[in-house]
């Protein structure tokens, strides 16, 4: 036999093969192109970041040098106090200092000082009245502004000239850090800043645009607006912001330099790929037309056959062949499935109507028509009905969109389990002489309508119902591993009252915890009295937690009494869970202080272990199991609590902390975090100890201790204030002086002078 058809089909796949190979090669070049672009962008970002860091460091160095000179040079304070007048030696020294700051930094354009006392400005040229000073508008703005960052680019006019230059400025209030006697203004020239940036960039390969916060261009010097620079220089790759300066740095690669060769290769392969795709499509159409001729002859013969009414002839060839062979089988199966589904839906709707008490006028007719019971309908016989509701636990079955259960919607293991449950329930009912009709009502809940001829007393019927339910519980748990609770409603003689039996069965299930899982709850067992108010359990809960907090062993007896009261009062499941939630929350609140002392105690209230405990309590199968879980967990917490109380005594810990602070008060890094690491407690708890023991905060305790030692050194030694400041734990004399004056009432220097004269000593400053 010649395999011409086989060879034709095999040959028709070659264009697909060529197309696939071409696309793979094309994609590989695109990937190389993208990698090159990404690496170029990374390099450009690193370069731009280096320029940004260099500019920030240069401006920061200028700022720190000027501020250091203003802080250490006493002439600045003398000038602000009005001591340095025109022509004085001190004023000449101060002018020399300003000139030195200008000469030592290439970026500095000018530095001047504004004295608030007499509205005088000191520049490198000498004193000037502020009202005639060319930069006085900036001084007025600085006095009103609290911003101490570098200003946007502005125009500076040199005093005595009409030429202006572009500068950026920063002002500081004198004396440092937040004085009100004057201003120190630093002006940085934009031109030298541009020269410095130009030395770090290569304009032949890349471009860089720097704009200040107001949008003015700082670099390059003559490139126009930001949009013009982008259009001229190339593609933007990097955009960085300087949080300190508020400037934006935009950079990229100039067009036609780095991407040109990659772009050319990409375009070539795009053309090649498109050409291959077009040729492949043409070839496939040609081969397909040739290979389709045998199938076309076959379809012409099929279309010559008479068609059935309503049959579509515009389908594809394979569908028509399959349709001709499977039409009769499919119609038969569809009819049977639709009929079966219709009966199930109608039965389910009838069941829901009975449980809800709707449509009672047509119940008898619909019941005879659908025959949900195995023996069909019976006439002339007195019947008794009862509803049994089965609630399953630890079972996860799929749920329909409307929240209902449908056997035909289940698949695989879930469907088999659903059918098994319903089948077991109905067969068990038949064993005890009942006719059963079961339906899924909701997720994990099955309702069963039971029917039986009245041949026994009603009391005996109730006993048989309980025996049947107990047997079903044991069988399902033993063979299928299913745990369940069954609620049995009252017996009725008319279908119109089925809803009453259903409601009483649902009400019985609300007492699952009190009566236990895999137990039988009948409507007669449900308490008829009014609900017990839950607030009556609050004293029991409070007394239990109080004994627990005082490390008394009576808490176990009180916990047992709490559960005994709930069992005696037969609380509903929801009320029991509410009481347990109150117990857990009160225990956690009482243990919150000890949680700060011990990290081992904290994990019982926060984290996976706490969530696991709460989940186990909420999903307990009975009140006895819940009691066991609560007792086990509280015992574990109790042991940890007692151990933490014994190993970390409150008084001992406070004494150790106090001794440690008195020995290490000279350490500038001494803080609550330092103590928490040293004594393995939280900062919050350490602060609580100081507040409780000494009636003051930790900061106040440490400050008073340092000030006591500082006063002794000021009175008994001749050490400098700076040396004394470092000896009592302060990094500089400015901070020490400010704290000393706040606590003692005078400065360290004045205190030393006053203490040298006992008759004039400040009694109010002693600690």
From TrEMBL:
Gene3D superfamilies with a match to the protein in the record: Homeodomain-like
SMART domains to which the protein is assigned, alphabetical: HTH_ARAC (SM00342)
SUPFAM superfamilies assigned: Homeodomain-like
Domain HTH araC/xylS-type: 655-754
Residues forming coiled coils: none
Membrane-spanning parts: 12-32, 267-288
Record's keyword terms, sorted: DNA-binding, Membrane, Transcription, Transcription regulation, Transmembrane, Transmembrane helix
Name of the protein in its database record: AraC family transcriptional regulator
Organism of provenance: Paenibacillus polymyxa
Source lineage: Bacteria, Bacillati, Bacillota, Bacilli, Bacillales
């Amino acid at each position: 036999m010649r395999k011409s058809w086989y060879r034709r089909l095999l040959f028709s796949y070659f264009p697909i093969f060529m197309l696939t190979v071409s696309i793979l090669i094309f994609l590989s070049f695109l990937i190389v192109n993208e990698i090159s672009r990404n690496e170029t962008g990374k390099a450009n970002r690193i370069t731009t970041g280096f320029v940004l860091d260099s500019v920030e460091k240069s401006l920061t160095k200028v700022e720190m040098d000027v501020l250091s000179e203003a802080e250490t040079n006493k002439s600045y304070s003398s000038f602000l106090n009005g001591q340095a007048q025109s022509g004085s030696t001190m004023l000449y020294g101060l002018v020399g200092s300003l000139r030195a700051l200008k000469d030592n930094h290439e970026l500095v354009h000018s530095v001047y000082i504004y004295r608030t006392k007499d509205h005088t400005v000191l520049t490198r040229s000498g004193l000037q009245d502020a009202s005639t000073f060319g930069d006085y508008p900036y001084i007025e703005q600085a006095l009103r502004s609290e911003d101490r960052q570098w200003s946007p680019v502005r125009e500076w006019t040199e005093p005595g000239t009409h030429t202006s230059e572009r500068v950026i400025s920063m002002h500081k209030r004198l004396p440092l850090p937040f004085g009100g006697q004057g201003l120190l203004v630093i002006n940085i020239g934009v031109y030298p800043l541009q020269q410095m940036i130009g030395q770090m960039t290569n304009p032949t390969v890349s471009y860089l645009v720097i704009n200040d916060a107001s949008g003015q261009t700082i670099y390059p010097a003559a490139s126009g607006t930001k949009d013009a620079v982008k259009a001229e220089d190339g593609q933007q790759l990097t955009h960085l912001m300087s949080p300190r300066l508020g400037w934006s740095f935009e950079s990229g690669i100039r067009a036609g330099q780095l991407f040109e060769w990659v772009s050319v290769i990409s375009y070539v392969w795009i053309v090649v790929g498109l050409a291959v795709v077009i040729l492949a499509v043409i070839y496939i159409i040609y081969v397909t037309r040739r290979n389709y001729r045998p199938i076309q002859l076959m379809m012409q013969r099929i279309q010559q056959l008479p068609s059935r009414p309503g049959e579509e002839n515009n389908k594809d060839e394979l569908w028509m062949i399959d349709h001709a062979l499977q039409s009769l089988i499919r119609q038969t199966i569809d009819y049977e499935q639709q009929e079966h589904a219709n009966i199930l839906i109608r039965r389910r709707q009838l069941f829901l109507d009975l449980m809800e008490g709707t449509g009672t006028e047509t119940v008898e007719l619909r019941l005879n028509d659908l025959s949900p019971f195995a023996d069909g309908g019976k006439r002339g016989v007195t019947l008794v009905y009862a509803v049994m509701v089965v609630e399953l636990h630890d079972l996860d079955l799929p749920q329909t969109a409307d929240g209902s259960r449908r056997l035909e919607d289940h698949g695989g293991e879930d469907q088999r389990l659903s059918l098994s449950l319903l089948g077991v329930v109905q067969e068990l009912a038949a064993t005890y002489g009942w006719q059963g009709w079961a339906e899924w009502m909701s997720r994990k809940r099955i309702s069963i309508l039971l029917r039986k001829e009245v041949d026994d007393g009603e009391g005996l019927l109730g006993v048989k119902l309980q025996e049947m339910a107990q047997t079903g519980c044991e069988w399902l748990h033993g063979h299928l591993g299913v745990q369940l609770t069954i609620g049995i409603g009252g017996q009725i003689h008319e279908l119109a009252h089925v809803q009453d039996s259903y409601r009483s069965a649902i009400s019985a299930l609300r007492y699952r915890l009190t009566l236990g899982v895999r137990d039988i709850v009948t409507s007669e067992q449900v308490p008829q009295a009014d609900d017990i108010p839950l607030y009556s359990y609050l004293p029991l809960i409070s007394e239990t937690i109080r004994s627990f907090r005082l490390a008394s062993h009576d808490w176990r007896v009180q916990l047992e009494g709490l559960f005994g009261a709930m069992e005696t009062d037969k609380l509903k499941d929801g009320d029991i869970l509410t009481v347990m939630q109150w117990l857990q929350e009160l225990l956690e609140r009482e243990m919150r202080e000890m949680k700060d002392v011990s990290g081992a105690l904290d994990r019982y209230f926060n984290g996976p272990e706490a969530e696991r405990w709460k989940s186990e309590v909420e999903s307990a199968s009975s009140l006895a199991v819940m009691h066991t879980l609560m007792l086990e967990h509280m015992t574990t917490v109790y042991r940890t609590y007692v151990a933490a109380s014994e190993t970390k005594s409150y008084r001992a810990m406070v004494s150790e902390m106090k001794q440690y602070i008195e020995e290490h008060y000279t350490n500038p890094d001494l803080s609550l975090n330092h103590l928490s690491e040293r004594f393995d407690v939280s900062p919050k708890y350490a602060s609580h100890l100081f507040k409780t023991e000494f009636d003051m905060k930790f900061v106040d305790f440490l400050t008073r201790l340092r000030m006591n030692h500082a006063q002794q050194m000021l009175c008994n030694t001749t050490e400098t204030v700076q040396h004394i400041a470092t000896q009592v734990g302060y990094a500089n004399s400015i901070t020490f002086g400010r704290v000393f004056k706040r606590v003692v009432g005078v400065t360290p220097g004045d205190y030393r002078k006053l203490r040298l004269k006992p008759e004039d000593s400040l009694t109010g400053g002693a600690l």
